[in-house]
Amino acid sequence: MRDGTDSYQLAFHRRWGHLRRARVRALAWLLDSPDLLDGAAPHWHGRIASAGPVTPEVERWLADLDHDPAPLDAALGPRVYTRLGLYAEKLMAFYYQQQGRLVAHGLQIRASRNDTIGEFDFLLDAGPDFVEHIEFATKFYLLQGEARQFGSCDTPQFDTLVGPNLADSLGAKMRKIFERQLELGAHPAAQALLPRPVSAARALVKGWLFYPAGSWPAMSGITAGHCRGFWCALGELDTLGADAFLILPKLQWLAPFRAAQATWLLNRAQLHAELEAQFETSPSPVLVAVVRETPGLVEEVERGFIVPNDWRERAEAKRSADMGRNIVW
Known about the structure:
This protein is of the alpha/beta class. It has one domain (about 10-325). It is built from nine helices and ten strands. The protein has helices spanning about 10-15, 20-30, 55-65, 70-75, 85-100, 170-180, 190, 270-280, 310-325; strands at about 100-110, 115-125, 130-145, 160, 200-210, 225-235, 245, 260, 285-295, 295-305. Strands 1, 2, 3, 4, 5, 6, 7, 8, 9 and 10 form a ten-stranded mixed beta sheet that branches. Strand 2 (about 115-125) and strand 3 form a beta hairpin.
């Protein structure tokens, strides 16, 4: 584990510590965090978008929004979000709309009433004659096994980065994006609904990657400065060398945590007991923040997934079963 002196969290707190509202901090993270994928890497064939640097104008806009969040609150509406991906997508739609770039969001394409072909996450203005298709994803993956290196046209190396619930992998996600979602603009059913032809279709991928505690392997195709954390099994909790934790609710997974206080602060023994009880009824890994507490401030220093003790075995069994069916995550 790192001590926080060189962490992404420290840099985020330094730049955005003045933002108090969780929704505005999440939006600042979406705009300012490193893109997960290295757009210059040959793996991606030039089809990776970037949010780009945050300009002084956008920085002032975020500060104003933190002071008066009414426009953002109105855009998100009264619904209680349970899906992190949808929450992040709504935040980005608000940003694009406020910047005057949004042409369409969530435009579904159907071949018939009951046959949905796909959906455009974002269509952005690309001049009077075209739109740009942005496929947006916010993902959290754990490195399971060894980081592998393959040729520039392959994505199997990214199959070792798996979702905490073992439902997918970064490799499978990118194959789906490249082979299906980014091709949607060429589908005949899309032609009648597109306001203008698609000039470019690219993927904008944000997120965090988590590595076995103590290891930080470099992987070609992944941005060198990407947001990252650790993962360990519950039985390895004592190896972390920290004693102040927060269990992060899902809508707090984007930006590093920072608040004036946190009544649900746990020491290591309390965290172990809480997770042991949770894992008896649910096999889902839990994202925790290692925090530093000072008078009037609790802030995240590091973060990581704590997984059930049998998670490695389940991950390997699922991978073997999928490979046996010629399914690659």
